[in-house]
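hi! just following up on the protien thing from before. the input was this:
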Amino acid sequence: MKHLLTYDMMESIRVTNQWLGSTARAMCGYPQLGLIPNPMIKLTAAWGEVMERSFERMIAKPDWNIHSIPGADGRDHLVDIECVMPRAFGDLIRFKVQGRAPTGRKVLLVAPMSGHYATLLRSTVVSLLPDCDVYITDWHNARDIPVSEGKFDIEDYTLYLVDFLREMGPDTHVIAVCQPAPLALAATAYLAEEDPDAQPRTLTLIGGPIDPDAAATDVTDFGNRITMGTLERHVVQRVGFKYMGAGRMVYPGLQQLSSFMAMNAEKHAKAFSNQILAVAKGEASDHDKHNRFYDEYLAVMDMTAEFYLSTVERIFKGLEIAQNRFTVAGKQVDLGKITTVAVKTVEGGKDDISAPGQCVAALRLCTGLPESKKANYLEPNAGHYGIFAGKSWRTNIRPLVLNFIDANCDVPKTPVSAVTTAAE
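and the predicted 3d structure came back as:
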């Protein structure tokens, strides 16, 4: 089958590198080699340890590792992860805090489907849990979804959000991070016409490409330069026989990861060199800063080919959201129909993925929304990751988002707590 061998070859390269790392670590770990005064033995063992761990993590879905949070009553409350609405391509899950009354802030975090799992927002979830009842979209790895489940493109993604919002009911507050921002905006407009009672109270869009042409980045330049035929020939592969989704056309996670790494190759090379030296010196640990970051960063997932291609073609090239021409199931979605949902945009001054100007364009498109229900915030020194999971999010953006939610919510709320060290 066309493209299947290429997919399997990438997996073979990954397995080979994992094996090389494991072999180097085992061979240089013999106690007798300690008698040889050669630092290369320790360095080789350290290289093997870092190599094995890195390539092993690439196909493993990280755990949420959210077990409990401190409560206002001075007790730790256990956190259960519940699947509220299971679907073929992604589930709606809830982080249920045991022994705690509803906070009055029911939040749906819309996670990106851009190569990483929803666990990329783990720190965002942890920071919100003390003050909110948190739900999140947990997208599935396309390699594990049988072909019989059919396609999944940006229209299907939008309809999933519509179904999730209907399931959660009224008084929901949506926070969409990065890639899903334009589709969350479209889902809200869709509900404004089709099911107004299911609309969220507020919609917070963080670093999303609402109008990619508003400010150029490497991502938008790539989208404008590349042709759809080139993408289909060189990016899309067919899942190999090892997985349940055998035969499904996907944009492989391993291929995505190579693109991520290439964008900051020098930075990543330095980080891994420093980690190898730290392991050789005995200064590294299983959950040190390097491993915490790269265990998540290297864990990538395949996305369906039709979702990736339709995102490039319709969001970046066709500018359907930016020009208010987006259609879902043959029906045009009019962003001007949003009249009651308060909308806030958040951007980072140093965001090199979704530059300032791209996200705030949403406010211009919501022509039916009063100015009193619009808000925007620019964090001057924050990069892309920082505006939803870094220091800028914890210290500046999170309180502003919660205040925005409270200002547009009639349900009684618990007082906002400070972000604890554990949440960081």
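Confidence is low (pLDDT under 50) at residues 419-424.
The longest helix spans residues 4-27.
cheers
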